[in-house]
Amino acid sequence: MDYSTVLMKRTFFSIIILAVALVSVVSCLKDAETEKTPQAAITSFVVGYYNVRFQDIDQQGNDSITYYRGGGILFPMTIDQVNNRIYNIDSLDYGSDVDAVTVSVGGVGRACYYYLDNPEILYVWTGYDSIDFTPSRGLVFRMISSDGTYNRDYRVQLNVRKVFPDSLLWSQADSTGFTAFREPCAVILNDSVYNFGLDDADALGVVSKSIKGGVWTSPAVLTGIPFAGWSRNVIVYAGKIYAQSGNSIYGSTNGREWVEQRSGIKSLIRTDDDGVIWAVDTEGDIIKSTDMSEWTKVCVKPEGFPDSAAVAFDYPLATNKKIQRTVLAGLDNDKVSVWTILSTDTVWSQIDAPARTVLRLPVMQNLSVIRYDGSLYAFGKGLDGFRQSSDNGITWYWCSPYVKNNETSWNRYMQFPKELKGYDGDFSYAVDRLGCIWVMTSDGQVWRGAVTRLDKRER
Does domain 168-454 fall into CATH 2.120.10.30? Predict the structure, then answer.
């Protein structure tokens, strides 16, 4: 369902619900006026319609602004009778204009309102006025008892989202003390991000920091693992880090001291934490493990199966949660391909490339793939943008900020920071449990971004 359809439905239901609310409020006010009392209180407060600004980008890349009508009935107002406050817990949509909003007020007494920036002027509420809810003005609603002997003021606040909920926001606040490496690779273990790579002396080193804050550790040289043959294949499984160097897999609990786990490995495939671990051995067979100790041959490596820069992800089938689908994307002799296998199968199958070239996963240097917000995202050297797949690797849409050359704009909010776009050096990446994507470059930059609604960091 596209965004415009959702907006139309929201507006339709808003009209129906608001009409019912207006009838109730009018009835309530009429009942309150049948006798004069020294009492005054607001018992219902319903926000009507307002405009919402929606920023778009046209085919020429120019900013454009469109509007749609929002209905406040979808955002109930809380009335705090103890502290005389009225506010909405769920904020209005990002871009909502609140300088001209209609409201319906119910309660005991007559409703008036004034602004703290000019409290001498008291306006009588009629139900037809467009009221300015701009926070800086300070809106106050006053209920006056029917006998005129008592007033009660309520401070009214209409909260609006400050950022678009699907925006991918980036910061460079985690760069302090970071030591960059060549041929880097990063993983997340025990709420810390570890970045591995080669230093200026061609020694294999590591730096780390907590995803919750703090500073980067000083670089430490790895022991127990040969520097020659560094493959940049590093994974986390069951609370331990595993890496490939040469034709062997090595394991570590702290990222510094390593012990050889298995030899005869041509390629260790980057996989999900605690999923099935995949590798290609030196005999040309695809093997798998569920404990990093016992390995089982699955099949002979098919022609074209990626043997480098390969990343795999496990999904439970929607129709049967006990069956896992594994999707793998990678390079073989500079050709990119996507493969899949079910946990009940013994053969990997290559996914047919879409007929439309623009929907295929393109060849990218330093091909990188992450699973984020229910989709797969691929990117590579240059960091110009993301390719998104929401159908298990079949089609890959370019996350473009605007439509160009008849390509379909898919997710224009998934963008790298402008400072990274066009970066021609090497980089590493990781995704943490707080909803953040890490990108660390070989020239010392550290960027951390998250989609607003997925960001779990403390503020």
Answer: yes
